[in-house]
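Holo prediction — guanosine-5'-triphosphate.
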Amino acid sequence: MSSDTEDIICARATPAGGSAIAIIRVSGNGCHALLHKIFRKKFNPGFTFKSHHAYYGTIFDNEEIIDDALVITFSEGKSFTGEESFEINSHGSEIVIALILRIICKTGGRLAEPGEFSKRAFLNGKIDLSEAEAIMDVVNASTKQAANIAVKQLNGTVKNEINFIKNLVADLLAEIEVYIDYPEEDLSLDTAVWTGAIDSIINQSNTMLNGFTRGKYIREGIQAAILGKTNAGKSTLFNYLLNEDKAIVSDIHGTTRDYLDGVINISGYGVRLYDTAGLRKTLDPIELEGTKRAISISDKSDIVLYVLSGSEGLTDNDKVNIQSISSDKKTIIIVNKIDLIQEKKNQLINEITNFIENHFINFRIIGMSAIQKTGIEEFNTQFIELVTNTSITESTDPIITNERHANKLLESINSLSNAKTNMHNQILDLAAFDLRQSLNSLGEITGEITPNDILDKIFSTFCVGK
Ligand SMILES: Nc1nc2c(ncn2[C@@H]2O[C@H](COP(=O)(O)OP(=O)(O)OP(=O)(O)O)[C@@H](O)[C@H]2O)c(=O)[nH]1
Ligand SMILES: [Mg+2]
């Protein structure tokens, strides 16, 4: 990304494709002078642009009219980027937008790089890095809960929590440095108080970090693959969970050949469900390709829903399939067609438990009847608990949802643990060094000490116009 922050940059802020109105953003000091060259107000020419004012007029390229437009102007220090800036609300035709961007570039502007507006806002101190990153999360949010968390982060939740922890570390560091710098003052050395303080900071950091798995799934959604042998009722279950008659269901083995997907919402989490081809030995090349795809989808998914037919019980084929699922994959064994085996249900569940408990690290077994539509409440509860490690009724919103933030927080926790060990051994210089490392890691979350190449990488994932 160009680091030239002196340029006047421009970009469309609304998506491609015809629309009634499109917005073009322009930022950079001196851009109001540029605006005077390309825009004429209908009434009262010879004016100066004020901050937060809207002007109706015409965009020109020399004497040629490009479009009628509403322009909103912002003064330096009062805009999103912190720079003199304006937004053109033009008609949403692709040609008009291209012509307006061209005249701006001809008059001294240039096209913005992805995320360049947000990067300038960050560099000019209008937002911190965690707030800048939240902008893209708001844009990309796929559920109401994801949008809520991102908006909170945009309003500074991460910054406030991290700054709170940072202040605790900084206060402790100051105390230790006084002790190191003035040994002659005969201050009593009470490392137990300090290690206790470090413990408390580590605990608070861990609480923040614990919500991360949940936060990540709220942000990115959960991928769930339905797997099982032919005719177990996978497609019937898929339709039941989706509440839609999407997949073809029949009692012919091998009905589903390619995979199908659909999105459902379980407790605010967006879940992408995959219905896949039944697993069996086959010479049919198309069915074989279908089963390969089924396995590759289950490898990539966050959780496998292995469906077996209650009326057939745990067959050798099921045993082979289950053992081929990686043992660290979170798996729910769904004993389907429970309507056919009411009285033998517990016996079958015991048999399955005995078979899989030494195989999977994390698993659940539930009975359902996809055809009679029973078991969904139990399914939802077990699903969320297994994937997110928290109860479905957990109400507090996670604070950390971004992988980069989580990694930095973990780095800080590691430094704090080292500080505790060094403190305990009374090696105060090293303990102080570790606390400084912890402050650095925390500072990288909010962006006070984030190296330039990392900043470029973060902002380059933004869309143009943000
Ligand atoms: N009694 C009963 N029958 C079911 C249940 N679920 C599915 N079936 C029946 O089982 C048969 C197979 O259902 P599908 O959903 O097509 O099975 P599948 O696992 O997708 O099969 P493939 O696509 O061939 O791998 C159909 O006749 C369904 O009506 C259930 O809960 N109870
Ligand atoms: Mg099917």
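READOUT: The domain at 8-127 is CATH 3.30.1360.120 (Gyrase A; domain 2).
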